[in-house]
Write a structure and sequence with these properties.
Blueprint: E1 8-13, E2 19-24, E3 31-39, H1 44-53, H2 61-70, E4 73-74, H3 77-92, E5 99-104, H4 118-143, H5 146-154, H6 169-190, H7 195-211, H8 215-218, H9 221-236, H10 243-254, H11 262-268, H12 273-284, H13 288-306, H14 311-317, H15 323-334, H16 338-348
Parallel strand pairs: 1-5, 3-4
Antiparallel strand pairs: 1-2, 2-3
Helix pairs in contact: 4-5, 4-6, 4-9, 5-9, 6-7, 6-9, 7-9, 13-14, 13-15
Length: 350
């Protein structure tokens, strides 16, 4: 391998899809290598494809899985590269120009990093463009910016993704969407959305991915996913809440089916009830009672959609003991009674 000069940073990816950062230290013939880490979540299908491509014996699968579990997980490669550049510039001096080079290390690869073959250059550009677009999508979702996220998605093509299972192109697309679902889920978490809401959306998209039998069915799923997670961030983000209100909201989210009240929450957090009520209204735009009821009604809608529970049982599971009160709140929120809500879902096949 050719010597690496000052200011050059080699970003390496090996056959197991593990990443490294290699650069020369300012003094002498000394080098620093950082890694390995992996980018994005590796599902079972991804690991099976890697083992097949690298001819790893099946009996070593458990050790490989354990190895991946041990590795640091990076969700935004671009953010990591920016951090690496800042670190290296601190060593070299801020006036030093940093040049990034990407090298793919195959099994027993001996290519020199700075005289790659034309196809390797194309692969580098594709990978760089893929990461650039993925990072833009994730940043937009963290902000809840649907327009920005869809614009970034429009610059992304499924063809950027390596066909890890050449004999099954449908599975390749599904694998990518599974990875995308994991990545955008994490972006929503970084947007301060409670995991209890993310789990509902993430599970629904997972079901849609696996239920598809053709690529045509999967085509609209990526933009639908982007819209869904952006909406989550806009509706449920706690980014602008003070720590105490975040704690209160977390208790409500986790215990929404249990008896909750202003007095209970104020006592739990040792806060004056009047102060908590005013602070909660100022930050969320809702009273605590209204906030709790809205969360319960939304949960009821999920139960009526995804389970065969009787309406009264669903209401009780959401903390409503008065069925008439539940029906009034439900109709106010959804514009229809619980019975009509479920009937309309059956008509649409949902």
């Amino acid at each position: 391998m050719r010597k690496i000069t000052l200011g050059v940073v080699a970003m390496l990816e090996d056959a197991l899809e593990c990443h490294y950062c290699l650069f020369r230290l300012p003094e002498g013939e000394r080098y620093c290598i950082i890694g390995p880490w992996v980018v994005g979540h590796f599902g079972d299908e991804d690991i099976n494809a890697i083992l097949f491509r690298c001819a790893v014996p099946a009996h070593l699968r458990a050790e490989i899985v354990h190895y991946y579990e041990w590795l640091p997980l990076v969700y935004a490669a671009g953010s990591w590269e920016k951090m690496a550049i800042l670190f290296i510039q601190d060593l070299y001096g801020t006036d030093t120009a940093i040049r990034m080079h990407t090298l793919f290390l195959g099994l027993g690869a001996s290519e020199e990093p700075y005289s790659p073959k034309p196809e390797a250059v194309l692969s580098m550009k594709i990978l760089e463009e893929r990461y650039k677009n993925e990072n833009a999508i994730l940043e937009a979702i963290t902000e809840g910016n649907t327009k920005k996220a869809l614009q970034a998605l429009s610059g992304f093509r499924i063809s950027f993704i390596e066909n890890r299972i050449p004999s099954d192109p449908l599975r390749n697309i599904k694998n990518y969407l599974v990875i995308l679902n994991t990545l955008v889920r994490k972006a929503a978490e970084q947007g301060y959305v409670h995991p209890i809401h993310i789990d509902v959306v993430s599970s629904e998209f997972s079901k849609e991915i696996e239920a598809a039998s053709t690529a045509i069915e999967l085509n609209p799923l990526a933009p639908k996913m982007v819209r869904g997670y952006c909406r989550l961030v806009r509706e449920y983000s706690m980014r602008n809440y003070t720590p105490v209100i975040r704690d209160v909201v977390n208790v409500i989210e986790y215990h929404v089916q249990e008896p909750l009240s202003l007095h209970y929450l104020a006592t739990r957090f040792n806060i004056n009830p009047s102060y908590l009520s005013a602070l909660f209204k100022r930050e969320t735009g809702e009273t605590i009672t209204s906030f709790i009821n809205n969360r319960r009604i939304r949960l009821a809608g999920i139960l009526l959609q995804d389970t065969a529970l009787h309406i009264q049982d669903a209401a009780e599971q959401c903390g409503f003991l008065d069925i008439n009160y539940f029906n009034r709140l439900f109709k106010r929120h959804y514009g229809k009674t619980p019975r009509n809500f479920r009937r309309d879902l059956c008509k649409t096949g949902r």
